[in-house]
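Hey, can you fold this one?
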Amino acid sequence: MQNLGYFDSEMDAARAYDCAAVKLLGLDTERNFPDVVISEKPESRGDKMRERKTSRFNFGVCWHISNSAWSVYLRNPQTKRQHRVGYYASEEAAARAYDYAAIKMHGPGYTERPAEVSEPPASLGDQMRERKTSRFNGVSWKKNRSVWHAYLKNPQTMRSQHIGFYDSEVDAALVYDCVAVEVHGPVWRKLTFPELITKPPESRGDELRRLKALR
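Sure. Predicted structure:
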């Protein structure tokens, strides 16, 4: 199996497969979009990063591929070691965080923009620490997947039963209610939306299985 790259959308990944399959096996090979003329392979995340390896800011900011975020670091002139400041969603926020940390370590003459850094922007870690869990029962944020996780805890064994992953926190809460009613009955005291229980929302796994069945 040859890795063709990582893509931001499912459609781009499918077109990239078609492009590689035609190059390797010819036009008669099975494709996702047989009626579409193959022109060029969509740009992968790796292609985008090779085009732009570093930040446009001069110091302390770089793109962290595995975390998909802007990383801020500050080098200690005494120890020559890098100090990690944090990860940020935007490049501008990362640059302001670097300026704030540099002023704090080296003094106000170290950066050219002291007026813009009265306080540091919240990093992605700060934002997650402020909100560790969902406001609904049976729902939590799955950091490594960037989705909402719905689960049901067994009151006898105290073990959590996995229900599914959802893009919406409300969808995860709704499907928790549906499963909780099936297991504990309609009078279960921890229901979030008891008046809305009809059919559970489709999870990411359900959606992928449905799309595969249509092919």
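The two ends are 21 Å apart (CA to CA). Let me know if you want another pass with a different chain boundary.
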